[in-house]
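USER:
Make up one protein:

ASSISTANT:
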Amino acid sequence: MTTTATSFEHLYKQEFQNLKLGKWVIDPKWIREFREQSINTFIKLGFPKGGRGNESWKYTDVRQIAKVPFKAASPHRHELLPDSEVESVAFAGSRWSRLVFIDGNYAPQFSSNVATQYNVVLANIAEVMHTHSDLLKAHLAQYANHEEEAFIALNAAFVHDGAFIYVPDDTEIEGPIQILFLSSSQVEAVASHPRLLVVVGKRSKVNILETYAGLGGGPAFTNSVAEYAIGENSSVHRYRLQREANQTFHIATTQVDCSIGARFDSVTMDIGSKLARHNLNIKMSGERSQCHLGGLYSVDEDQHLDNQTFVDHAAARTSSYQLYKGIASGASRSVFNGRILVRKGSQQVEASQTNKNLTLSNKAEIDSKPQLEIFDDDVKCKHGAAIGQIDQNALFYMKSRGLDEKSAKTLLMSGFLSEVIESIAHVPVRALMDSVIQAKLSWES
């Protein structure tokens, strides 16, 4: 169920018309037609209506997003930012490639490409529209459902810039490719619609670090869509860090398609935003494909975080493993809804899903809803969920050994999340993610 179109949806329509008659006029005809179809789809669908009438948005009310007149930021805003602000949220290391976007606009002065030796295409979408138009057209919007999901349709309507990664066959990239989507809102309500498209050929390997962060304290709306198409017997390690500012609304969809023998490993960390929702959808299209999904999150004060995962076992002999752990304090709310679908004809599937949570406050709310839908036999599927508090006996023991209460709580929370952190295969990325969550836990305790 969705709302009918209101003046708020039409604000985006007007913004669309302004851009359509401005900097978009030189873009290829196919992308201009695609945008037109998408804005009409968004107007038709309207913003999702939460509550009992719409199960998929039952726990997250987006009316506060719909009622703010967000505008596109100036395309030249990134030219005014000092290097120190960007570097404060970037992953240090000039040996690795990096694409940086400020309020949805490519910032070449902060970006670098050292992957050219691998014949990798690493560029912003506005450029790829003209240099690799056929390749972009073959994959863009072929995976994320822009015809039925309002926020995906809205992103598609405004797709102009974003990150494009193409990894050819038989290619292994050692260092992670960093994609940074940064919001710089100071006073005005700024909207950005980041897009990421990753296409990986056969028998290839790549590490990708997605970062979404805020550089300003003003109201902002980030509406992100990422699509991953993984070729036969290839593997992608994706790490996603969401640390937006506390006045940011963050809606994101990640859609992954795994071919025969492909593997997708993902670890996501959510610690920022006023309201955040991440839809992570994996389609196991080819036999023997597999995915390992890890998630950790920490919310406090009045933060709202909604993690939705959907693993579609559309082929036989596929496997999936999920482990999400989170901590909620203050008057925050965290939601985890994990759905596993085993289609008819998909035998010898193995699927596991676990969600564990700690609550540090009697005002915090945690909703956990694991789901299994199995339409074939000869499968091994399981799920579990748990919500608890810090073990008071363990806390007393640590304090009796000389630790103050804050240090003891931080250590216990760190231990609770360590299983997810340790699953990060890339050592420097693991160190980065660990340092970020430790800083959050130290403040929270």
